[in-house]
């Protein structure tokens, strides 16, 4: 079958026009993404995400927008970095740079190198720019010969409580022991925070390592230790390694004045911390006389029986705070058992350590209306609940109109790459960029 020439020309013109409209709309989307990043940087700087009880700005963005959590971390990191790169920010505001390009630029660009790198970014594809960034890292790498020589005789670790009731850890380890500990902490941190190593948001890396160290200790005690080729520690020997909290029953009541509440070594913890720990722990009731002599020691019982804990894991599948979902959790009594609350599924939910602390030490409240999801109310009266209906999506015409009102009018050429192949990249451009970057390293 033979088509008329004018019909083929018409089809080609239509496809060309369609392609131009796609490229123009993409540039508008780049400009819209810039606006999102600017707003996100402002929201993050004012720590607006804390109002809703979220652990970081990335977690808030993940919860409110539906972006993948990893993508949210990159958006927050890029938004922060973009505030110090005015030329890059302006180019993205015009729709000339995609988020992928800006994300790559913000990893290496600073005041001295921004102009040269921006020229490379405008003319290259996102893939070429990523390769360029990786190459720069290899070219600028310096020999890392900072390892200190630690003598075996100087190894030491001290763990002592300070005047605030925290524990201070200081030590020097053999190189292989220190490396082993770091790898274990990294593994625990990845598991505890879903691979959030490198997340610029709170908790800070140092805080994540502290939480990971606690997880290491818990898991080590659960697994036991193989000694003398025999069975893992158990029974009386394992009891030596439990963390004991001594608390008066009246202290656990919500409205009572705090009485005794301390760890085995005498370190005081708050009454509300004791209530949090008692939510999901083994409890032994000890009866004493007025002189403190022990009269009776009851049986050890779990505040959350194993069967109920398994049911909780099946039902909740992680922290129930909206937008969280971490799998390492404590079971929380909505109405505390010390205040008469029952240990039943309708009075229990799983919370991660961060949100469990919010509910106890930070004064948040939990409500669970019948037939609905749990609601969390902050001391400032902000209620956080799972959205019932997602917001209506913006239309492309709305985005284009908003950009045009701000004076942004990209066309089909705005975001395109000049270099299509690696061979198209001009050597003098690369040379100038590397010269600038090498000078900045010096």
List the helices and strands and how they pair.
Layout lengths: L4 H41 L11 H9 L3 H14 L3 H8 L5 H7 L8 H10 L2 H14 L16 E6 L5 E6 L2 H18 L12 H19 L11 H5 L5 E3 L13 E3 L7 H9 L2 E2 L2 E3 L5 E4 L3 E2 L3 H11 L13 E4 L14 E4 L1 H8 L4 E3 L7 E3 L5 E2 L11 H10 L21 H15 L1
Antiparallel strand pairs: 1-2, 3-4, 5-8, 6-7, 9-10, 11-12, 12-13
Helix pairs in contact: 1-3, 1-14, 2-3, 5-7, 6-15, 8-9
Top keywords for this entry?
3-stranded antiparallel β-sheet; 13 strands; 442 residues; two-stranded antiparallel sheet; mainly alpha; single chain; 15 helices
Quick overview:
The protein is mostly helical and 442 residues long. Helices cover 45% and strands 10% of the residues.
């Amino acid at each position: 079958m033979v088509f008329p020439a004018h019909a083929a020309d018409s089809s080609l013109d239509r496809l060309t026009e369609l392609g131009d409209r796609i490229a123009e709309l993409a540039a508008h989307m780049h400009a819209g993404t810039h606006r999102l990043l600017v707003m996100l940087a402002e929201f993050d700087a004012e720590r607006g995400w804390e109002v809703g009880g979220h652990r970081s700005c990335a977690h808030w963005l993940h919860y409110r927008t539906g972006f993948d959590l990893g993508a949210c971390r990159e958006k927050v990191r890029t938004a922060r970095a973009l505030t110090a790169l005015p030329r890059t920010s302006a180019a993205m505001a015009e729709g000339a740079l995609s988020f992928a390009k800006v994300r790559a630029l913000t990893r290496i660009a600073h005041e001295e190198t921004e102009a040269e790198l921006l020229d490379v970014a405008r003319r290259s594809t996102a893939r070429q720019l990523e390769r360029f960034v990786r190459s720069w890292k290899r070219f600028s790498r310096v020999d890392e010969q900072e390892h200190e020589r630690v003598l075996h005789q100087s190894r030491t670790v001290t763990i002592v409580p300070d005047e605030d009731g925290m524990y201070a850890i200081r030590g020097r380890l053999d190189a292989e022991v220190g490396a082993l500990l770091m790898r274990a902490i990294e593994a625990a941190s990845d598991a505890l925070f879903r691979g959030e190593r490198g997340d610029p948001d709170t908790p800070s890396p140092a805080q994540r390592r502290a939480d990971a160290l606690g997880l290491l200790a818990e898991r080590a005690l659960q697994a036991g230790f193989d000694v003398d080729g025999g069975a893992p520690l158990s029974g009386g020997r394992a009891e030596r390694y439990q963390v004991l909290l001594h608390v008066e029953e009246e202290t656990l009541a919500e409205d009572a004045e705090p009485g005794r509440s301390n760890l085995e070594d005498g370190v005081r913890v708050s009454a509300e911390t004791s209530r949090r720990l008692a939510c999901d722990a083994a409890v032994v009731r000890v009866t004493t006389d007025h002189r403190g002599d022990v009269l009776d020691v009851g049986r050890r019982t779990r505040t959350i029986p194993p069967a109920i804990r398994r049911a909780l894991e099946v039902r909740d599948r992680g922290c129930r705070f909206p937008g969280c979902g971490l799998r390492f959790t404590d079971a929380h009594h909505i109405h505390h058992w010390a205040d008469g609350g029952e240990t039943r599924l309708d009075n229990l939910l799983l919370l991660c350590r961060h949100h469990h602390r919010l509910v106890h030490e930070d004064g948040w409240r939990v409500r669970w209306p019948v037939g609905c999801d749990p609601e969390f109310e902050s001391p400032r009266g902000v209620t956080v609940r799972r959205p019932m209906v997602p917001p209506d999506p913006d239309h492309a015409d709305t985005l284009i109109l908003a950009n045009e009102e701000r004076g942004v009018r990209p066309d089909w050429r705005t975001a395109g790459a000049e270099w299509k192949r690696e061979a198209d990249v001009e050597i003098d451009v690369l040379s100038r960029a590397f010269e600038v970057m090498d000078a900045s390293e010096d």
